[in-house]
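User: Could you check the structure of this?
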Amino acid sequence: MAKTDDAKVAVADALDHAQTAVKHLHGALTAAAARSGAAITADLTAVPAEARAIAESVRHSIEAQNTVTRHAVAEAVTYLEATASHVGAALTSTGQATQELVRHGMTATGDALQKLGEAVASRAPKP
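Assistant: Sure, the predicted structure tokens are below.
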């Protein structure tokens, strides 16, 4: 397999992995939103680091992507960073503020998932 083909496979794998990881992250946020108090804190503790790790992973693949894919991935990274920020703030807040920050994190994660879906679609071969 040529080096260019290897790079394309690596980008495809990175996008697929990121999309799966963001789906998991979104599910965790959705589950946390249904809880309250200490249960939310326990569920959310790892979320900021996980969101940042996903963002960093896809950020490294940006150079090998086409323009449309690159734009969608860059937006997904921005949304993942927002998720990390919102959930990080939720961990230090209480009551209604926690719930609102978790909802903002869920929204940002959903937006990241949408952008990763666009990136996956844009890198798919045209029939």
